[in-house]
């Protein structure tokens, strides 16, 4: 399964601060439809993600009936991403 969408990068200042992009509702619904087959627990979905020219492996976080894409520091730094940037994300999910 391949998904592509754009979203604004935001910062969460919790105990383990991270940057995220929220998966739009329509794409989250598609992910939810296959989640029982691909999740490894707690609703986490393993993916290969791509932003601009950078690929990495990560897991989508379930949140409020949707999903969040964590953006690693190495990706942000390589692509010059800042909080508030609208970023196009490509996801590959093995189903």
List the helices and strands in order: EEHEEEHE
Name of the top-level CATH class: Mainly Beta
Q: Specify Rg, calculated over alpha carbons.
A: 12 Å
User: How would a crystallographer describe the biggest sheet?
Assistant: 6 strands, antiparallel, barrel
Description of the molecule:
Strand 4 (54-63) and strand 5 (66-71) form a beta hairpin. Strands 1-2-5-4-3-6 form a six-stranded antiparallel beta barrel. The protein has helices at 25-38, 73-79, and strands at 2-12, 18-22, 45-51, 54-63, 66-71, 86-92. The protein is built from two helices and six strands. The model has no long low-confidence stretch (mean pLDDT 94). It has 95 residues and is an alpha+beta fold. It has one domain (2-92): Elongation Factor Tu (Ef-tu), domain 3 (Beta Barrel), CATH 2.40.30. Helix content is 22%, strand content 48%.
List keywords for this structure.
95 residues, alpha+beta, Elongation Factor Tu (Ef-tu), domain 3, six-stranded antiparallel beta barrel, 2 helices, 6 strands, globular
Question: What's the gist of this structure?
Answer:
By secondary structure, this protein is of the alpha+beta class.
SSE blueprint:
Blueprint: E1 2-12, E2 18-22, H1 25-38, E3 45-51, E4 54-63, E5 66-71, H2 73-79, E6 86-92
């Amino acid at each position: 399964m391949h998904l592509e969408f754009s979203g604004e990068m935001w910062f969460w200042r919790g105990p383990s601060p991270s940057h995220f992009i929220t998966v739009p509702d329509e794409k989250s619904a598609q992910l939810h439809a296959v989640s029982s087959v691909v999740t490894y627990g707690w609703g986490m979905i393993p993916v290969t993600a791509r932003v601009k020219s950078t690929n990495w492996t990560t897991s989508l976080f379930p949140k409020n009936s949707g999903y969040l894409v964590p953006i690693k520091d190495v990706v942000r730094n390589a692509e010059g991403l800042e909080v508030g940037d609208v970023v196009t994300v490509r996801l590959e999910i093995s189903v």
